[in-house]
Amino acid sequence: MCAASVDFGRPSEFVGAVASVILEKPSLSVLICTRNRAKKVQRAVASVLANSFTDIELLVVDQSTDDATREAVAGVADHRLRYIHTNTIGVAFSRNIAIREAAADIVVFTDDDCICDRDWLQAIVREFRADSQALGVYGRVVPHGTTGSATWDCVSEDGEMVCPALIQSTTRTVVDRPAIPHLVLGGGNNMSFRKEAFTRVGLFNEMLGPGSRIGTGEDTEFSYRLLYNHCRLVYSPQPLVEHDNWMERAEFVQHMKVAIRVQAAVFTAYALRLDALSVTHLLRTAWYLAGNRMGIGSAGLGLFHFATGFPWGLKLRLTAPPAQTPA
Questions:
Q1: Which helix (H) or strand (E) covers residue 267, if one does?
Q2: Quick one: pLDDT at residue 4?
């Protein structure tokens, strides 16, 4: 077995409540994947459990190499919380474990370095109830602690510190055809799906994501796969989380090298399907890199890391995502 599930709480007080949760499917399954960040995940868990919408279960999938996260989660006395330890490595594996374990028909993702607004879940539920055709809802992500200055909508700067993986648009958007996910929808730190989405297109591709050899991108590829298959997705500014991922500029440069490689890989895989937007995005990105406009430090370095993604794109094109249910 690669994963073990544990429910934490006070047995004498919560036996009846746990039995009720087992018998009655929650409206939402909230999923947090983590590895060796006990303090941050404890804060993320607290923010989810403090939400105004309470008909949930919260699954923490832990790939940590020590017991700190287990102990931190064990200290949270709430029958809605489920802890799952796995010896797998990689966020895509964790996400897929969580999806398969989730009891609800709608699954919600945030990251262990996020703090969720009190009405985050209520806003997500409202969007799904308003649009029965929507398979996914993405929400606004702002930097934690300070707004900084936005060079792009997806990056904030404060002096020599940079916070990536944001989407700060206040305009609601509905899309059901190819679009660049991180620009239009956001990413894996604030996204939710009906389980039907995974039935239609499969789970996260496990050759991608933090912890994999390529380094990230499982959320980008999955989002684009949904759009490529003309699934209806909604971006709403109402479901709000704060992202606590400030890094020094040198670390941001390394982050961008990985991100550029992943962009090349994901969109090469779809360009090989003769997808016009993917071809355009690859050409546009190469043009920006040639002009040293992507924050990597030099045009040559940027184009080099971009080029290393092309072989990964061919491999990705030939690698099918796993199905929703285990084989």
A1: helix 249-271
A2: 53
Task: Give the whole-angstrom CA distance, residue 261 versus residue 306.
Answer: 5
The whole domain housing 298 covers: 249-318
**Same structural domain, 112 and 156:** yes
Q: In this structure, are 240 and 255 located in the same domain?
A: no
Average pLDDT of the chain to the nearest whole number: 92
- Can you tell me the distance from the alpha carbon of 271 to that of 317, in angstroms, rounded to the nearest whole number? 9
HSE-up of residue 29 (Cα within 13 Å, Cβ side): 26
Q: State whether 241 and 253 are in the same domain.
A: no
Hey, what are 147's tokens? 């707004």
Q: Which helix (H) or strand (E) holds 243?
A: strand 233-243
- For 293-302, which contacts have Cβ atoms below 8 Å and span 24 or more sequence positions? 294/256, 294/260, 295/151, 295/155, 295/252, 295/253, 295/256, 296/253, 296/256, 296/257, 296/260, 297/253, 301/257, 302/260
114-126 residues labelled b (16+ CB within 10 A) or e (exposed): bbbbeebbebbbb
- On whether the CB atoms of residues 224 and 178 are closer than 8 A, the answer is yes
Residue carrying the six token digits 């055809």: 177
- Determine, yes or no, domain membership for 324: no
Helix (H, G, I), strand (E, B) or coil at 308: coil
| Tokens linked to 41 | 């995940």
Q: What percent of the chain has pLDDT over 70?
A: 91
Residue 133: both structure tokens together: 């055709």
Backbone angles phi, psi at 87, to 5 degrees: -95, 10
CA distance 318 to 285: 23
**How far apart (Å, rounded) are the C-alpha atoms in residues 118 and 270?**
38
Q: CA geometry: angle at 22 spanning 191 and 69, to 5°?
A: 55
The one-letter amino acid code at 53 reads F
Q: Are 120 and 216 found together in one domain? A: yes
0.85 exceeded by pTM: yes
